[in-house]
UniProtKB/TrEMBL annotation:
Enzyme class: transferase
PANTHER family to which the protein is assigned, alphabetical: 4-HYDROXYBENZOATE SOLANESYLTRANSFERASE, PROTOHEME IX FARNESYLTRANSFERASE, MITOCHONDRIAL
Parts of the chain that traverse the membrane: 26-43, 49-71, 92-112, 118-138, 220-237, 243-263, 284-302
Similarity section: Belongs to the UbiA prenyltransferase family. Protoheme IX farnesyltransferase subfamily.
Gene for this chain: cyoE
Subcellular location: Cell membrane
Main subcellular location of this protein, as a coarse class: membrane
Function statement: Converts heme B (protoheme IX) to heme O by substitution of the vinyl group on carbon 2 of heme B porphyrin ring with a hydroxyethyl farnesyl side group.
Taxonomic classification: Bacteria, Pseudomonadati, Pseudomonadota, Alphaproteobacteria, Rhodobacterales
Gene3D superfamilies the UniProt entry points to: UbiA prenyltransferase
Protein's pathway: Porphyrin-containing compound metabolism; heme O biosynthesis; heme O from protoheme: step 1/1
UniProt xrefs under NCBIfam families: cyoE_ctaB, PRK04375.1-2
Protein name according to UniProt: Protoheme IX farnesyltransferase
Listed EC numbers: 2.5.1.141
Further information: Carbon 2 of the heme B porphyrin ring is defined according to the Fischer nomenclature.
Species whose genome carries this gene: Yoonia rhodophyticola
Length: 310
């Protein structure tokens, strides 16, 4: 960290500033995929226990975000899209962010263990550790494969939800994990292709900086090709079905077409249309994950309806 870690906030932060520390947009994706993992599991969960579990997972995700912002305050200050975050903008002191992150981490893990089971709590604890330490403190600044390996942190929530319900892991939960894990690289590399200068200014070894944009385009198509069989394969498990397979077929064709278009482009093409294709693929990637997990929810609802209700 830079000297920013030793500075104090010039004035008292608002509740909105503290909430921003928790990365609410990232938290919303975590909550959604964890909820799907819980609801599609074959073991019913009491609504109150389910609510507490999802609350703990959300708080744990927020704790990870606060710890990430505390550690990355120096590079956040150098990037246009992150310079306005609470710490680099001076609205929250680094020490406050660290305290919030550690406190919420302990609260979330302990409460989840007491409310559900120790496996779920252990997965949550490891997820927080992975994101805050392995990814933020090590991988992000050490290797252009930071997104590939670090993507595991964002892939654990559906496995967490499944563990809350069943007390274990399964092929289904591992494939939900793999779906997010394999989706993460092309999702973020599409973003990196049109915010390239931000990562360069911050000294983050993003693939676009270390290997160039042509190599990044090749990586996007390769990882998308690897993603497709994982997404389709999930449809042939106990939580899949015709609705999911139909959605997966459409979304993967759409995403693969976008990745192919990126692969065929040159720097001149990107400059000419101001990264229109890359921006479009990034937007598709956001719909991609929501559509797959939404389809899993529909399949679960259909199965429960056939059995007489949830």
């Amino acid at each position: 960290m830079s000297d920013i870690s030793m500075q104090e906030a010039p004035y008292e932060a608002s509740m909105g500033d503290y909430f921003a520390l928790l990365k609410p947009r990232v938290m919303s994706l975590v909550v959604f995929t964890a909820l799907v993992g819980l609801l599609v599991a074959p073991v019913p969960v009491h609504p109150f226990i389910g609510f507490v579990a999802i609350l703990c997972i959300a708080v744990g995700a927020g704790a990870s975000g606060a710890l990430n912002m505390w550690w990355d305050a120096d590079i956040d200050a150098k990037m246009r899209r992150t310079a306005g975050r609470p710490i680099p903008s001076g609205r929250v002191a680094p020490g406050e962010a660290l305290g919030i992150g550690l406190g919420l981490s302990g609260f979330a893990v302990i409460l989840l263990a007491l409310a559900t089971n120790w496996l779920a709590a252990g997965i949550l604890a490891f997820t927080i550790f992975f994101y805050a330490v392995i990814y933020s403190m090590w991988l992000k600044r050490a290797t252009p494969q930071n997104i590939v390996i670090g993507g595991a942190a964002g892939a654990f929530p559906p496995m967490l939800g499944w563990a809350v319900a069943t007390g274990g892991v399964s092929v289904e939960s591992m494939l939900m994990f793999a779906l997010i894990f394999m989706w993460t690289p092309p999702h973020f590399w599409a973003l990196a292709l049109f915010v390239k200068s931000d990562y360069g200014n911050a000294g983050v070894p993003m693939l676009t900086e270390t290997h160039g944009r042509d190599a990044t385009r090749r990586h996007v198509i390769v990882y998308t090709l690897l993603l497709v069989p994982v997404a389709i394969g999930l449809g042939f498990t106990s939580i899949g079905g015709p609705v999911y397979l139909a959605v997966a077929a459409v979304m993967n064709a759409w995403f693969l077409k976008g990745a192919y278009d990126i692969w065929r482009r040159t720097d001149a093409d990107c400059e000419a249309d101001k990264h229109k294709v890359e921006i479009g693929v990034f937007k598709v990637s956001l719909y991609y994950l929501f559509a797959h997990f939404g389809a899993l929810l529909v399949e679960a609802a259909l199965r429960q309806s056939a059995l007489g209700g949830w």
